[in-house]
Design brief:
Layout: E1 3-10, E2 21-28, E3 33-39, H1 53-70, E4 82-83, E5 86-93, E6 102-112, E7 116-125, E8 128-138, E9 140-141, E10 149-150, H2 155-158
Antiparallel strand pairs: 1-2, 3-6, 4-9, 5-8, 6-7, 7-8, 9-10
Amino acid sequence: PAPVRCAFEFRPADGAASPRYRIDIVRMRVISEFCLKRQVHFYETDAAGIVHFSVFFRYVEEAEHAMWRAAGLSIAPPNASVGFPRVAANFDFLRPLYFEDEFEVHLRITRKSSRSLSYGATIEKDGNALARGTLTIACVQKLAGGPMQSATIPAEIANAFEVATPEAVKG
């Protein structure tokens, strides 16, 4: 996660100009929401110029990866011992998205357990919701030559994310 730095200075009671000592605190920024701004590419559309429904899932995954990068992480670093397959995904489509439309993918963390993260997603254009969906990822341990097994999310990842507060969740 990106560090947020805070400093506290303690001065003698006599009001001396120089501080007696200073404490620098570095805390990591925790992410609960993320917004990705984007434009529709031609290859994402069908013959009518409308974004194909399957592409909306890619938009959410692209926003998810950007959110992890904003937290100073990669969802799939080289030689990682854990991975994050998708275990549930859905979308409700409200309005079409067209070639060259500029839009935003709003992603928020709606649930966090020791082994999974769930996101709520809203795709918007000009403040209007075009689609709403959800995505759940599970943490798995990668075993050489064997099946994936459910695993606890490593602390450095779990500590980078928190569930969005109800007032932050878009309707």
